[in-house]
Write a structure and sequence with these properties.
Blueprint: H1 8-35, H2 39-56, E1 58-64, E2 67-72, E3 75-82, E4 85-89, E5 93-96, E6 99-107, E7 110-117, E8 120-127
Antiparallel strand pairs: 1-2, 2-3, 3-4, 4-5, 6-7, 7-8
């Protein structure tokens, strides 16, 4: 008469393999949690880079009442803070998000931007 089912060795090896796979899965999930990145921070870095490009092609830079005014392709444009966003007008292009406050500074023909992002002060040079 033949026995149906698994031998004890097969069951032990299967359980050991399964437990090893679960341990590896738990380790990889904890690494993924550490790697998680703040998406709005990345978006803000891209916005700063876009502002630098616009600066390179613009002229007649001026800062008035926390607004940065300039001419881009012979059109007057300006940046200003609307609620917790930095926007570019005309139109309504959002460049920075989740900012508490923002300040533009002009020093030695260079334009700087200081802004608070999640209670942390960030500095950026737009151009000279």
């Amino acid at each position: 008469m033949k026995n149906k089912g698994f031998t004890m060795i097969e069951v032990i090896i299967s359980l050991a393999t399964l437990s090893l796979m679960i341990i590896l899965l738990i380790k990889s999930l904890s690494i993924i949690k550490v790697i998680k990145v703040d998406e709005s921070l990345i978006s803000n870095e891209l916005g700063i880079n876009e502002m630098r490009l616009i600066y390179a092609y613009s002229n007649e830079h001026d800062i008035v009442n926390d607004e940065y005014n300039f001419n881009y392709l012979d059109k007057p444009m300006y940046y200003y803070q609307d609620e917790n966003k930095l926007t570019l007008t005309p139109g309504y292009q959002v460049l920075l998000t989740n900012i508490d406050s923002i300040e533009f500074k002009k020093t030695n023909n260079c334009i700087y931007i200081d802004y608070y992002y999640k209670d942390e002060l960030k500095h950026a040079l737009l151009g000279c």
